[in-house]
């Protein structure tokens, strides 16, 4: 009797699914609420505890959260490499891979540009920077002249070097430094090369990638057990160290970002309605637990197995599409992050009284697309990308300190939108290619005997 491995994710994804069935997301939400309450009790507003003791206590409370983030960052590179290589090598139709990848890339680039534009438009309309007292920022360095932004664009003579730099000369060095775009290109080349040689020769490497993938997913499942404790500790430290008054001063900025994310989510639901036969209510019920887990972990990579399971089992997306696009989307599809960058850049420009030209807005959208493609699917990546955008439009990077306090909350929100974008990308590609969710054709690579 023969059986074929349809989805390399599913065995260990079932373990994570058991966590969901155990109401992990509910535990995380409860931990979030308790963390806010604990932070208020320990914070400077009530003054129940001395600041020195608060700093020491919250540092220990945040330790599980730091371990959780470190584990996710540790495992994201091998998980992405193994997933992309295995997803490509398991597909015996190179033309389909090319078609799927092209449609996905166009959709991701278009949606990322729309997201950044939505963020800019909202920030210009609501003017959240006008609600912040700029006198508290006198110690920060003054903004350089906006004319310096031209230096951020490479000259035409430099473009060939920029393009050639995308090819990793040393893949191990790229993995060590977290250069995700180079890692993706290396994995794509490796997967394509495996397709071009006889299956018998590529099977050992294919099996090795499968083992690496399984080990990575097992580590993710262990990390997920820490999620409620991690969220409690991190939120407690955030609220206790900043205080409610500081967070309240940023409420308009936070509301602007959340409104933008809700608009993006609405647009994604519209696309899902068009690309699926399910109703909006059915689609929401199928993805709600996935989005809650993405919210709690702040990492697209952490929920990657659950994303694949939802897309294949609940949305009936062809495994050939899902296995390739979910790992890819978790790395390059960052629409929520792009929208956040648009709001944050205009917000800080208003705080620092930096006049942004139309060229500056075009630069923000361009950088949002380019930077999101290479950003890691781990918590806090948005701040790293934002610092590059701020430097390009003449806003001091020290302004990041102003929004860093509330970034953890916003990171959780925008990760949910990023994951929703990954799901909708799969449904869109399937709609345009006309593929249905059928079992993969047997191949020498995926065949196993019982």
Account of the 3D structure:
With 450 residues, the chain is mostly helical. It has one domain: Sodium:dicarboxylate symporter (Proton glutamate symport protein, Orthogonal Bundle). The protein contains 19 helices and 2 strands. The chain has a two-stranded antiparallel sheet with strand order 1-2. The chain is globular. The relative contact order is 0.19.
Q: How much helical structure, as a percent, in the residues?
A: over 70%
- The stretches of 5 or more residues where confidence is low (pLDDT under 50) are 1-9, 136-153, 437-450
The portion of residues forming beta strands comes to under 5%
How far apart are the termini?
6 Å
CATH class: Mainly Alpha
Number of helices: 19
The main sheet comes to: 2 strands, antiparallel
Dominant shape: globular
Q: How many beta-strand runs?
A: 2
Enter the CATH topology name. Answer: Proton glutamate symport protein
Provide the domain count. 1
The arrangement of helices and strands along the chain is: EHHHHHHHHHHHHHHHHHHHE
Spell out the key features of this protein.
450 residues; two-stranded antiparallel ribbon; Proton glutamate symport protein; 19 helices; 1% strand; disordered N terminus; mainly alpha
